[in-house]
Design brief:
Helix content: 10-25%
Number of domains: 2
CATH topology of the largest domain: Lipocalin
Structural class: mainly beta
Largest sheet: 8 strands, antiparallel, barrel
Radius of gyration: 21 Å
CATH class of the largest domain: Mainly Beta
């Protein structure tokens, strides 16, 4: 019986395997924390010039084929091929208008210029979070993390913003907490609307805003949430 137990334990261990790199990519949302790029004369993005929680890179799989998605003002999609040390990004589709804000445009142009080809990559784990570093001899690198970097963020499911895209009236709802303030920023980074409020539900008239991308920042009980909204 003792030997049977040892054999069973050994057999069970053989069935336990670590996640592959592609599984780690697929199972997480990656937040940009640094991006160094010299394409088209754009320099590196400096610390504090962007919100790392709002520039995301996600991966998906269909019929064994990997693909990626990232966006600021434009939506950038493509396919991914990888082995244990190298990864290849191939951009297949770009939609939407370019960012006007140079900082945001820096990332969009940089991603299309720099991260469109073959690169070395590493995935490391620290304190329960993963980091992804992509670079080659020309491109200094982009670094992403699975960690949510701002502990003052409102939970993702605590605020409802609808409809999105919006045509005329935008509704912002937080049934559990009162919304204290709302700020709207356009793609150029210009603040176009700000309102103090103490209500669980607020409606904003969008009819007079031009078509494009806007960022809605909600504050409630010292926590914030920023959401991208498209005006049709």
């Amino acid at each position: 019986m003792k030997y049977l137990f040892i054999l069973f334990l050994f057999s069970s261990i053989n069935f336990v395997s670590a996640q592959t790199n592609s599984e780690i990519l697929l199972n997480h949302t990656w937040r940009l924390i640094s991006f160094d790029n010299e394409c088209f004369g754009f320099g590196p993005i400096e610390d504090g010039e962007f919100d790392p929680n709002n520039i995301l890179l996600t991966f998906s799989e269909e019929s064994g084929n990997l693909s990626f998605h990232t966006e600021m003002c434009q939506s950038i999609d493509g396919t991914v091929e990888m082995n244990d040390t190298e990864i290849n990004f191939d951009i297949t589709n770009t939609e939407g208008e370019e960012c006007v804000n140079p900082i945001n445009q820096n990332y969009e142009v940089g991603f299309q210029c720099a991260m469109n080809g073959e690169y070395d990559y590493t995935i490391t784990e620290e304190n329960g979070f993963y980091k992804l570093l992509v670079s080659n001899d020309i491109f200094m690198g982009a670094e992403f993390t699975t960690e949510v970097l701002n502990t003052n963020d409102l939970p993702s499911n605590s605020v409802s913003i609808y409809p999105n895209p919006v045509l005329d009236k935008l509704t912002i709802e937080n049934p559990k907490l009162e919304i204290e303030s709302i700020k709207i920023t356009d793609a150029s980074g210009k603040h176009i609307f700000q309102q103090s409020a103490n209500a669980p539900k607020i409606e904003i008239d969008f009819t007079h805003y031009p078509k494009g991308v806007y960022f809605i920042t909600i504050e409630s009980k010292g926590k914030t949430k920023t959401e991208k909204v498209i005006k049709k």
